[in-house]
Amino acid sequence: xxxxxxxxxxxxxxxxxxxxxxxxxxxxxxxxxxxxxxxxxxxxxxxxxxxxxxxxxxxxxxxxxxxxxxxxxxxxxxxxxxxxxxxxxxxxxxxxxxxxxxxxxxxxxxxxxxxxxxxxxxxxxxxxxxxxxxxxxxxxxxxxxxxxxxxxxxxxxxxxxxxxxxxxxxxxxxxxxxxxxxxxxxxxxxxxxxxxxxxxxxxxxxxxxxxxxxxxxxxxxxxxxxxxxxxxxxxxxxxxxxxxxxxxxxxxxxxxxxxxxxxxxxxxxxxxxxxxxxxxxxxxxxxxxxxxxxxxxxxxxxxxxxxxxxxxxxxxxxxxxxxxxxxxxxxxxxxxxxxxxxxxxxxxxxxxxxxxxxxxxxxxxxxxxxxxxxxxxxxxxxxxxx
Length: 386
Prior knowledge:
Elements: H1 8-11, H2 17-21, H3 49-60, H4 64-70, E1 71-72, E2 94-95, H5 101-114, H6 117-137, E3 149-154, E4 163-169, E5 172-179, E6 182-184, E7 188-192, H7 209-220, H8 224-230, E8 231-233, E9 269-270, H9 276-290, H10 295-307, E10 313-318, E11 326-331, E12 336-341, E13 357-362, H11 371-381
Parallel strand pairs: 1-3, 8-10
Antiparallel strand pairs: 2-3, 3-4, 4-5, 5-6, 5-7, 7-13, 9-10, 10-11, 11-12, 12-13
Helix pairs in contact: 3-5, 7-9, 9-10
């Protein structure tokens, strides 16, 4: 996408996304074995009509050649070939920057119809801050732009059958699976460097205020004995961390691009070691991420997280001061959230800082990309005839 490629030594650190996508999908687990019966086909209050109509309008406004580039089967492996950095392969989908303005607006209308107001605002903020970074450093003009994102549609838009869409690129990867009154919005990667634009076209755009504040509240609720279990490392500086937690691309993240089948053991303090009041603070940490979903699905997700709260683990790396950089993870059978303050990639900070943030949300145990729901749907409605 850019005339000046990333240095080869940096590209070598990128995860093997294509190779990983060729592996049979399992999902993120704690031990390599999927916990069964965590998800079910049900109506969570999502109304698919507006998203269906928006997608049909978008597709109708494309040329035949463009439709050939943007449409994929519901089970296509392209769902899994995404990156928050630079694709080292031929990217799939239609680039928003290459669309006419009306077509681009129509694509974004699908995103808006599928997400909550917060979800759409966060998505657009990540895109705008990518453009702000490009203005700030005046490099990589093909990638550090507001609309340098690929869009793809999976399956046929329907009020009853499974389908979805994907928006992916630098610092933003959103996967939206829709099945009737249900919606799955994982994997979702959102990041920004910096998290606030203080000048230029995008001045005033901010991201992650709620996610940072809720994280600090959860860290500060811990009593001394609990801190010993929750805080994995008191410092996030590279000299104080083991080598596996110092990575120019992934930082402390374990669930980023190319990690669909990763085994990630639980770490930190369990929910059943917290008081009732502390458990509410932990639930409040999940809410800014859940609220990217429309109201019904967001509340359904929160209820599912609450039902597994005793098994939910909270882990922390770094300080807990107002200006500190840190990492946190919320990990349960039904959700995995990672928030990481990153070192500079385009800016010159060699250690993690609060102004460069990466976040990942996953549905462990086969739930990402709506895969478990799709499996159940096919088993119920599309059994092969005898």
